[in-house]
Design brief:
Blueprint (H helix, E strand, L loop, with lengths): L2 H10 L3 H7 E9 L4 E4 H9 L3 E11 L3 E10 L4 E11 L2 E12 L2
Parallel strand pairs: 1-6
Antiparallel strand pairs: 1-2, 3-4, 4-5, 5-6
Helix pairs in contact: 1-2
């Protein structure tokens, strides 16, 4: 199973231990739409919440260094975004994540 396949599985299952294993301790998540930067702890807490639900999630490309993922993400407030994510890997774990998002009509 690839790094992104593992990540998508633990994300969907809200597997906190699995998230801790697949995300590097020095992880940084940059959300370009909002300008926010989140740590490993922040991302795991967010993933365990009921705030986000992804749909039509797919891996666009992945190798040993990077992964590209696309999904439609619906938030608890009802807003939906098409999200393109670029992951960088280090030591077999997700080291960084950057996203660009497009708001979708309700």
């Amino acid at each position: 199973m690839s790094v992104l396949e593992k990540y998508m599985k633990v994300f969907e299952e809200k597997d906190e231990a699995g998230m801790n294993e697949i995300i590097h301790d020095d992880f940084k998540f940059t959300m370009h739409a909002s300008g926010n930067v989140l740590s490993k702890k922040d991302v795991i807490a967010w993933a365990m919440s009921d705030d986000i639900n992804d749909d039509k999630s797919r891996i666009v490309y992945e190798n040993d260094e990077i992964g590209i993922h696309h999904a439609f993400v619906t938030f608890k407030d009802g807003n939906t975004q098409a999200v393109m994510a670029v992951y960088k890997f280090k030591d077999g774990k997700i080291f960084s994540l950057e996203t660009g998002a497009t708001n979708m009509p309700k």
